[in-house]
């Protein structure tokens, strides 16, 4: 049985039962309302000398009033039933229409048409249901778009090393390249592909919140000093100054040492890549409320404002023409954001074109009450 027919019959049945109940109750309680009026009429007649006819007149008046009321109710019953029919039809059509729209939208969504949206016809629970359906469709559309972009981006990222591998193989076959030179180039491209695969694996675990975090009390200044020691030689080789500034003393933070150093490494690698020779990158740590803020500021070209909301998206590059070798795998900032949030912190970026970019992330203070796990 169709939903409309079910709703229609249920509404109509309720309305008809209400009408029958009204008729029965009117028959039962009506005498209590008109008996007083009959008594007053009889009293008036008795005062006029009609006392001998009182009892017969009483019965006649009560039967007349009852029959008149019953006839009126029965005469109104068809019109009331018609009204119940129209009301049940209207209410059933309204509910069935919304259910039909939901069924059609669900069917189209199941077929992969994530752009479908339902009109918000009502301002009640049905309208709220349609609103949540539209939000679900929007979320699925975004997931599908992200999936398609991910496939396209991975294909693009793999195209360069695969083309290079093909070139080395053809050069080796044609005798243009020596075995040693071809092997060196092949090894380099294979390493690049391996880094890409490892980065993709890490970013997928970060976004799925499946990265294991082992927090313990850490000294913020010690973390910056270790990051400085790791990157000092690379910055010197490019001619970029790397300095450290930290408040002393700073309270300990509750974080995973390996993950914090990984975040700092990603930010420093990004700063080194975009800071020209003669520029400067500054590491800084300071207390910020119930957290310690870590700052990596460079004097690079800066990031245009329209790119800032997307800077932590995977594979997003401000300079679309930048090659994979120059621009890295494109997931370093995505990983940094996921790791910071997994440790209970936040990360954000500020930048001015021509002046430089500053990445800041926070980590919660160690209170002495925090337990592992």
UniProtKB/TrEMBL annotation:
Coiled-coil portions: none
Every Histidine kinase domain range: 153-367
Alphabetical list of PANTHER family matching this protein: HISTIDINE KINASE 1, TWO-COMPONENT HISTIDINE KINASE
Reactions that this protein is recorded to catalyse: ATP + protein L-histidine = ADP + protein N-phospho-L-histidine
EC nos: 2.7.13.3
Protein name: histidine kinase
Parts of the chain that traverse the membrane: 69-93
């Amino acid at each position: 049985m169709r939903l409309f027919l079910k709703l229609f019959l249920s509404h109509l049945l309720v309305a008809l039962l209400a009408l029958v109940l009204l008729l029965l109750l009117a028959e039962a309680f009506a005498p209590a309302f008109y008996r007083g009026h009959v008594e007053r009429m009889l009293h008036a007649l008795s005062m006029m000398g009609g006392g001998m006819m009182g009892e017969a007149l009483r019965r006649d008046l009560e039967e007349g009033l009852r029959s008149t009321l019953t006839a009126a109710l029965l005469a109104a019953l068809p019109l009331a039933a018609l009204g119940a029919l129209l009301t049940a039809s209207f209410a059933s059509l309204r509910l069935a229409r919304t259910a039909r729209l939901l069924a059609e939208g669900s069917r189209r969504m199941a077929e992969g048409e994530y752009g479908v949206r339902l009109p918000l016809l009502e301002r009640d629970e049905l309208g709220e249901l349609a609103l949540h359906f539209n939000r679900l469709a929007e979320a699925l559309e975004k997931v599908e778009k992200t999936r398609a972009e991910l496939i396209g981006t991975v294909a693009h990222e793999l195209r360069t090393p695969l083309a290079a591998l093909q070139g080395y193989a053809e050069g080796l076959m044609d005798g243009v390249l020596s075995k040693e030179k071809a092997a060196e180039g092949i090894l380099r491209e294979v390493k690049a592909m391996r880094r890409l695969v490892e980065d993709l694996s890490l970013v997928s675990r970060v976004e799925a919140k499946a990265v294991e975090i082992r927090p313990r009390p850490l000294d913020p200044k010690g973390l910056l000093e270790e990051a400085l020691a790791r990157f000092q030689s690379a910055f010197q080789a490019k001619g970029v100054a790397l300095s450290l500034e930290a408040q002393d003393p700073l309270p300990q933070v509750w974080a995973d040492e390996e993950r914090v150093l990984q975040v700092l490494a990603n930010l420093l690698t990004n700063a080194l890549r975009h800071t020209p020779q003669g520029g400067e990158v500054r590491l800084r740590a300071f207390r910020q409320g119930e957290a310690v803020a870590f700052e990596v500021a460079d004097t690079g070209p800066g990031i245009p404002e329209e790119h800032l909301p997307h800077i932590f998206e995977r594979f997003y590059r401000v300079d679309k023409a930048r090659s994979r070798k120059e621009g890295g795998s494109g997931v370093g900032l995505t990983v940094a954001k996921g790791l910071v949030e997994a440790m209970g912190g936040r990360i954000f970026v500020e930048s001015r074109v021509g002046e430089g970019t500053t990445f800041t992330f926070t980590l919660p203070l160690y209170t002495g009450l925090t337990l592992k796990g």
